[in-house]
Design a protein that fits this description.
Layout lengths: L3 H15 L6 E4 L20 E7 L2 E6 L3 E6 L4 E6 L10 E7 L2 E7 L7 E6 L1 H5 L13 H8 L6 H6 L9 H11 L12 H26 L31 E6 L2 E6 H4 L8 H7 L7 H7 L5 E5 L5 H15 L6 H5 L3 H12 L6 E6 L2 E10 L10 E9 L8 H15 L4 E7 L3 H10 L2 E8 L6 E8 L8
Parallel strand pairs: 14-15
Antiparallel strand pairs: 1-6, 2-3, 3-4, 4-8, 5-7, 6-7, 9-10, 11-12, 12-13, 13-14, 15-17, 16-17
Helix pairs in contact: 1-6, 5-6, 10-12
Length: about 475
C-alpha cells in the first residue's frame, strides 16, 4: 500500500499537472470503485482542481466549490499519467480522468478490487474520511509521546494504526523501528523517555529520508513504480540479507497477509522473534537467539551469491546428483542414464554467462551445495514482463531438509519483487511428490497448465505463487 512518502510524491507530481486544470471528463469502468452516489461524480466535471491534500493514506482532489474527490488506493491501486484521452486498460483499469494537459488513469492490478473513490461535498463531510492519525512530521515530541502511549499496543501495531499515526504502514514502520533500534513487539507503555525520543527522531528522519529519496528518483517525471520494496531499504523485504548496520541476517515475522522484517542484533538484543509459519513447524525447536538461529541452519558459513563461470562444473554436478536421486523411478531409465556431467556443465556455463538473468548458488564451507535460476516466463499464456519463472532449483541430495531450498526460494522471489513482477511460476514432474509438497508448503499453488517433459511422456504440472496480490490465480 502506498504510504506517506509515496503519497507525498504522488501529490507533488499531480500538482504540476492538474492544479488549475478543469476536469473535462471522468470515466469509471469498474463498478467497485465509486462508493458514493450523492453528489454524483459528474458534478466534478467542468470544475477546476484548486488543491490537493493527503488525509492519512488517502489522496484528496479539491475541486472548485468545495467538492472533493477522495481516493484510497489500498494495496494495489496506482495512478498513471498518460496523454489526453487515453482509455483505461483492460483488466486493471478502474477509471480515467481527462484534463486538457493529459489523463490520470487509476489502475488496480489485483483481482480483489479494494481501491475506492468517494465524492464529498464540503469540508464537514470530508472530515468523516479522516481517521485522526497524528502527522509525525508536524508533531512535537510531547504530542508524539501522548499519542503513542494513549493505548497499550506493540510498537508495530501502534505505528501502523491510522487512528494513532498518519500515513505509516508496513514498510515504513519496519524502517522506522530499525532506525530507532526498537523491537516490533515492544509495548508502548513500557518505553523509557529515551526510547520514545529515539523513536520520535527515527520516525521523522526516516520519513523525510524516503520522501527525499523518492523525490530525487522521480525528478520531474510521474511516479510509475510505486512499491513497498525499494532499493536502499534497511530491513523491509530483505529477509536473510545482511543488515546494513551490523551485517547480521535480517529476520521476518509473518502474520495475516503481511511480513514484517527486523534485525535481531540491532533491535531485539540478538533474540529471534517467533515466526508463525516456522514456529508452528519447529515448535520447541524454534531458535531464541541469533546464535541458535545460526546453529539451526547448521552453524555453518553459508553464502548465497550469483554464480560465475567458475561455478559451472559444481552446478552441473549438483544438477546431475539431484536429478539421479529425485527422478529415478519417475523418468525412464534411459533418460536418467543420459544425464551427463559434461553436458550439464556446458549447459550451465551458457546460462551463467547470461548477463541479465542470474543463476544463484549457495556455498557452504567452500563447497557449492545448491543452485537456482530465475528468468521471465516463457509460457505462451503468461506475460513475461509481469510473470517470472524458476527454471531449476536443486540441492545436493544428502543436504536436503537443511534450509538451502527455502533460502534460495526466499532470495529469488525477493529479486522478482524488486523487479516488479506480479507472480512466479515453475514446472514440476507430476509424480515428484516431495518437490510438490515443498512448493505447496512454501505457498505455491497448482494452476491448470500441464505438459509433457521434453522428449518423454512424463507429465508435468505448473505451480504459481503471487508476489503482491497483483496477478489472479489460474
Amino acid at each position: 500500500m502506498p504510504e506517506l512518502p509515496d503519497i507525498t510524491i504522488y501529490l507533488e507530481a499531480l500538482a504540476t499537472r492538474i492544479i488549475g486544470q478543469p476536469l473535462e471528463r471522468a470515466r469509471v469502468v469498474s463498478p467497485s470503485l465509486l462508493r458514493t452516489v450523492d453528489p454524483p461524480l459528474s458534478a466534478a466535471e467542468g470544475r477546476k482542481v484548486v488543491g490537493l491534500r493527503r488525509i492519512g493514506k488517502r489522496i484528496v482532489w479539491e475541486m472548485e466549490g468545495k467538492l472533493f474527490l477522495v481516493f484510497h488506493l489500498m494495496i494495489a491501486g496506482r495512478f498513471k499519467w498518460r496523454p489526453a484521452g487515453t482509455k483505461s486498460p483492460a483488466r486493471v483499469g478502474l477509471a480515467s480522468f481527462d484534463f486538457p494537459t493529459g489523463t490520470v488513469l487509476l489502475n488496480e492490478a489485483s483481482p480483489k478490487k479494494r481501491a475506492s473513490l468517494h465524492v464529498v461535498d464540503g469540508e464537514d463531510a470530508l472530515k468523516a474520511h479522516d481517521p485522526g492519525g497524528l502527522d509525525v512530521l508536524a508533531a512535537d515530541q510531547a504530542t508524539f509521546k501522548d499519542r503513542l502511549q494513549s493505548e497499550s499496543h506493540t510498537l508495530k501495531r501502534a505505528l501502523t494504526d491510522p487512528h494513532l499515526f498518519d500515513g505509516i504502514g508496513n514498510w515504513l514502520s519496519d524502517e522506522i523501528l530499525h532506525a530507532a533500534k526498537l523491537s516490533l513487539f515492544q509495548l508502548t507503555g513500557k518505553l523509557s523517555d529515551e526510547e520514545i525520543r529515539h523513536l520520535y527522531d527515527a520516525a521523522r528522519a526516516t520519513t523525510r529520508l524516503w520522501i527525499d529519496r523518492l523525490r530525487a528518483e522521480v525528478g520531474s517525471k510521474f511516479p510509475e513504480k510505486v512499491s513497498a520494496f525499494k532499493d536502499g531499504m534497511a530491513v523491509h523485504g530483505r529477509y536473510k540479507e545482511p543488515c546494513p548496520v551490523c551485517a547480521s541476517p535480517i529476520q521476518r515475522i509473518r502474520y495475516a497477509d503481511n511480513e514484517a522484517n527486523y534485525c535481531a542484533t540491532c533491535q531485539t538484543g540478538g533474540r529471534v522473534l517467533a515466526d508463525r509459519s516456522l514456529s508452528r513447524l519447529l515448535k520447541t525447536d524454534w531458535p531464541k537467539s541469533l546464535e541458535d538461529w545460526e546453529a539451526m541452519v547448521g552453524g555453518r558459513p553459508m553464502t548465497l551469491r550469483r554464480a560465475t563461470l567458475d561455478d559451472a562444473t559444481a552446478v552441473g554436478r549438483i544438477h546431475v546428483e539431484s536429478w539421479n536421486v529425485a527422478y529415478r523411478g519417475i523418468m525412464p531409465d534411459d533418460v536418467i542414464a543420459r544425464t551427463d556431467l559434461a553436458y550439464r556443465t556446458q549447459f550451465w556455463s551458457e546460462r551463467i554467462a547470461d548477463p541479465e538473468w542470474p543463476v544463484f548458488v549457495i556455498e557452504e564451507n567452500g563447497q557449492r551445495v545448491a543452485f537456482c535460476q530465475m528468468v521471465p516466463s516463457r509460457d505462451p499464456d503468461d506475460d513475461p514482463t509481469r510473470i517470472g519463472h524458476i527454471t531449476s532449483i536443486h540441492v545436493l541430495p544428502h543436504l536436503r531438509g537443511r534450509g538451502h531450498g527455502r533460502a534460495l526460494m526466499d532470495h529469488v522471489l525477493a529479486e522478482f519483487r524488486k523487479l516488479g513482477f506480479a507472480a512466479v511460476t515453475l514446472w514440476v514432474l507430476e509424480e515428484n511428490r516431495p518437490a510438490r509438497k515443498f512448493y505447496e508448503h512454501y505457498g505455491f499453488r497448482q494452476d491448470t497448465a500441464t505438459r509433457r517433459y521434453p522428449r518423454t511422456n512424463v507429465p508435468e504440472v505448473r505451480y504459481r505463487i503471487l508476489l503482491s496480490n497483483t496477478e489472479p490465480p489460474r
